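Per your request, structure below.
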């Protein structure tokens, strides 16, 4: 392929970086704002040159630049396997056959490493107002410390649940995101087994 000018190379690198982070391509406006340009003309000119030189393939939609081959290779090579736990014992996540239902391949946008992460299938509708529905699979980081307002996997008096972690005047409690469900105040013990950092949803 033909060599690129420094500006063309800068645009290509920005597209690559954006795709790796978001899984889609930047719009013309986003590229113009990133390079602090006053009009779209310069970006359009660089994109046309990149297409003619074979570096990108695009259509006429706003995010129509196809995922670059370099991005595909990195995403494919960086996938890791996370365990779906059917049950979490009281001591916290245990990565053994006894508790693992299956394994899922996820990309770096979901988890950067295997250590500390696990998946859990949601049961019930107590978090629907937070966009979490029954049979969704939440991504959980057991190493992350919960902050007020985080969605967490909590162990309350011996039972696991997915709720929002809140700190009130009388201490921490778990808040439901559905008015039909009550908030949960521990009678004896509340321990946080991980912070929800993502969501996997598979359509049947």
């Amino acid at each position: 392929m033909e060599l690129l000018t420094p500006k063309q190379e800068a645009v290509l690198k920005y597209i690559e970086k954006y795709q790796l982070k978001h899984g889609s391509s930047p719009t013309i406006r986003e590229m113009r704002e990133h390079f602090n340009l006053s009009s779209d003309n310069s970006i359009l000119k660089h994109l046309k040159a990149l297409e003619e030189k074979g570096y990108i393939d695009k259509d006429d939609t706003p995010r129509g630049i196809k995922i670059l081959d370099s991005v595909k290779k990195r995403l494919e090579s960086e996938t890791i396997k996370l365990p779906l736990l059917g049950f979490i014992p009281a001591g916290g996540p245990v990565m053994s056959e006894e508790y693992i239902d299956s394994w899922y391949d996820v990309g770096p946008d979901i988890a950067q490493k295997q250590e500390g992460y696990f998946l859990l299938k949601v049961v019930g509708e107590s978090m629907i107002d937070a966009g979490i529905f029954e049979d969704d699979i939440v991504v959980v980081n057991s190493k992350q410390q919960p902050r007020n307002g985080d969605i967490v996997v909590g162990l309350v008096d011996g039972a696991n649940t997915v709720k929002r972690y809140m700190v009130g005047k009388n201490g921490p409690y778990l808040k439901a995101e559905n008015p039909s469900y009550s908030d949960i105040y521990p009678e004896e013990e509340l321990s946080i087994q991980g912070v929800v950092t993502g969501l996997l949803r598979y359509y049947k």
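Helices lie at 6-22, 28-34, 41-52, 69-77.

Regards,
D.
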